[in-house]
Specification:
- The N and C termini lie far apart (about 75 Å).
- The chain has helices at about 1-40, 60-70.
- It has about 70 residues and is mainly alpha-helical.
């Protein structure tokens, strides 16, 4: 009987440690998520930012040619 009781106690200890570690991990993930939620991803850039894409005034046939050549 004592062997079964000992095994049951060990099982309870493992379950408690697992539950505590899971709760700590979940709380840490929530804190990280809240930190990233506060960041404004779509703010206008600061400093000397340059617009990357500027439309070119080219013929549509030139654009089609580039598309077929480069797979753009």
């Amino acid at each position: 009987m004592s062997k079964i009781k000992r095994s049951f106690q060990d099982l309870i200890k493992v379950l408690i440690v697992f539950t505590v570690c899971t709760c700590v991990f979940y709380a840490a993930i929530r804190m990280i998520h809240q930190e990233y939620e506060r960041q404004h991803r779509y703010d206008p850039p600061d400093g000397t930012a340059v617009k990357v894409v500027s439309p070119l005034d080219s013929e549509w046939t030139d654009r089609l040619s580039i598309f077929f050549r480069l797979g753009e």
